[in-house]
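Quick one: structure for this chain?
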Amino acid sequence: MKNFSIAILACSFLLIPNVQAQTIAHVDYEKVMLEMVEYKQATKQLRNYSKSIQNTFEKKQEEFKEYQSQIENKIEQGLLNQSEILREQTKIRQRYNDLEQELLLAEVDLKTKEQALVATVHNKLNDAIKLLARENGYAYIVDKNHFLYVDGGIDVTNDLALTVGIVGFR
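Got it. Here's what it folds into:
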């Protein structure tokens, strides 16, 4: 029985991979991302696109309010009979629903555009992190903002900034 236990213990050591010191580095991912030219361009594009959508929506909203006001004036002046009033009220409800639907679609479109633009920034950052890890032998590079406490370790934030082309990063 003793020999069997020793054999199992020996086999278990063979199955355990070599444990060696693994170098862990940390980076301030967001700080680097906010300084990237690509990120600044993406946020500018999104801001302009958002303003464009907002302006278009505001114009359509004003047109809706104007139409609604015209119909209300016609009703108050007695220019519409009952069937015309019902037809115009139906049109107003439909235009309102269409406007709401258009706003929802615009929000989805804006979110999709944001995801596409930011994805390219994240891909560039992630590729740079992998390159840093390979070149410097880091087993892990973690975002230090996801830890409650970080003291010491290897901060590669400046190296990451240089890798993605940020000059004069602090």
